[in-house]
Amino acid sequence: MQIKIHREGWTYFIVSIIFTIISFPFFPIVGLILLIISSYIYYFFRDPKRAIPIEEVIVSPADGIITYIGSSKSPELSEDNQELIKISIFLNIFNVHVNRNPSNGVIKKIKYIHGKFINATLDKSSEYNERNIVCLEDSNKEIIYVTQIAGLIARRIVCDLKEKQIIKKGHRFGIIKFGSRVDLYLPNKYKILVSKGQTVFAGETIISNPNNILEITNSIKD
Fold first, then answer.
1. pLDDT tens sequence across 89-131
2. Cα angle vertex 164, ends 161, 170, to 5°?
3. pTM
4. Which of 27, 152, 169, 215 is the most buried (most CB within 10 A)?
5. 13 and 116 inside one domain
6. Of 60, 74, 180, 208, which one is the catalytic site residue?
């Protein structure tokens, strides 16, 4: 099965391959090391297809392990500072780093905040690290926030969304390069269907079922 890579990875991959080819005839050991690096770059930027639920549910915006679920104030982008449920997902260097929309809806606001690059497993990274906050209105007219957070190694956050853009659940919207974290903020009335320590997959794992759909069996591949 062929696995494509995210467009953000092509520059890294091509440059690494060129240096690998140049190095092999003269410095075989260096060439071998560069080949391993090239293979990892391809692996890191992989962008596999996902089975996206058709029903109106909230799906994970990122691959990784859930490190926190609990009550939290809405991020800086909010004007009312309301209490929401925050789900934090940590992405290590081996996870797929392509981010996907958690819900159908409309993008209301986007704000990029420059900051530090402390370990993304720490909860304080939500407040101090470099991050990109996306505010969207879902199909239930409820406000949801997705925050892409740079980590200890990550140094670039990519977000392809624009304000007033209509989005589809499970579609790709960006990537965080080389280790990171994603926080998802949902209304308190939304029942959370995942637990701390659980591994989730972007666009595929159902985080919440706000409309109380009893059975979810249909999905599309993207």
1. 999 888 999 999 999 999 999 999 887 766 555 666 666 778 8
2. 45
3. 0.84
4. 169
5. no
6. 180
